[in-house]
Amino acid sequence: MRLSISKQMIPGLRAVTLALALLVLPLPVPVLAGDFEDGMQFILAKDYAKAVESFKKAAVQGNADAQFNLGVLYSRGRGVTQDYEQAANWFRKAAEQGDVPAQSMLGFIYLKGQGVRQDYQQAMFWYLRAAEKGYAVAQHNLGVMYAKGQGVAQDYQQALSWYQKAAEQGHAPAQAILGFMYLKGQGIEEDDKQAAFWYLKAAESGYAEAQYAVGVLYAKGRGVVPSDQQAVSWYRKAADQGNDDAQFNLGIMYAAGAGIEQDYQKAASWYLKAAEQGNAKAQFKLGVAYAKGRGVEQNDYDAVTWYRKAAEQGYAPGEFNLGTMYAAGKGVMQDDHQAVSWYAKAAEQEDPDAQYNLGVRYDTGRGVSKDEQKALFWYLKAAEQGYPRAQYSLGVKYDNGQGTPQDYGQALSWYRKAAERGHRGAQTNLGVLYYRGNGVKKDYVEADKWFSIADAGGYEDAKENRELMEKLMTPVQVAEAQRLANEWTKEHQP
Asked: Per-residue pLDDT for 275 more than 90?
């Protein structure tokens, strides 16, 4: 009988448990078996120090099981001071006798550099020896090394081959990664149905990461018939095992009422579980819940706390929202400099809300020295991502020659982009350009069209402009402008 050991084989993947059955070996010296069996009895009694003594007696006489178990005890610090060098020494002795799990463990030790100098080549060597004998854990980990290019040139096809071998033995982590490779088309043609097949195999064996992935597949309808109810079911299975991504997604489903009755309290509860595990998205969502009082009592201080946790992990929406709290003085002392600082962090990560707000700060000189060129820079960054308010502000800059030479053509272009996205101010200013003939041929019908669209959205300036505009137009022109406005509105209905 061997000890059970739970080790993280490869960074970023779940721990793999080596639960090994009793090995009955022909032993020439009767006391050898007795020492090993004594050691197992001490393990069951949780007397690890005596277990070490018994295993050592058997190990020095060449018992590979005892050598392996000593490696486990030294690596765990059970019954002895934790000593990775000693662990490596005993795993090596067992591995050199052809003990397959020990060979796999030795591969892990070289991969991590625990008790030995890190050496990917040696890790590959020992994993390969175990993998070629059909050991699924080693096959899986060998696949990971090929996928990451550790000790060998990156080769997704080789990775896929080793994952397949392990997956066909029922190794859940390999089945899950095989599903991922089919989903992404890594080393093989993309195939959503095959991805779903392998993810389901792993999920049905209780592997939480795969259960979460199956939930995503059902939510998106990839490789399976879309079903929010099925997504919720699989998210819950993974969430109950502590998978923070699943806990977060389950919160999202409760908040949206997708596949389950809407319940903001349960949404907040699941966000909290994920947030406490350090999930930045959940921390952010929990901050939003406290800020809006959804599922929890409204509390700006708690909102700031959770926004800060997400922000400190570099999560851009958390950084932006923390900036807005400083800007408004909600849950913290009002501080324009702090607001700008957090906006800048999020803006550097291409968050368009933050880029726009940073542009506004440079435009107005709040919390930072006024700088129209920097304002223009950040407006442009947000505008290029399709952010209407930034597109409008950029149009104003070009229209008035602020921070850049006046350019009606550019103003027209940016107003149009924002107008098409429903920005009422941009629609109105676009109408003004057509009325004046700035950057475009004068066109009263087109001008009145945009004034009408903005007026219908409740924009007061547009209403005044429309009334003045139509005094200059014939009834036929007014009718045509109205027809075009109605046509645009119909095409842009949500």
From this structure: yes
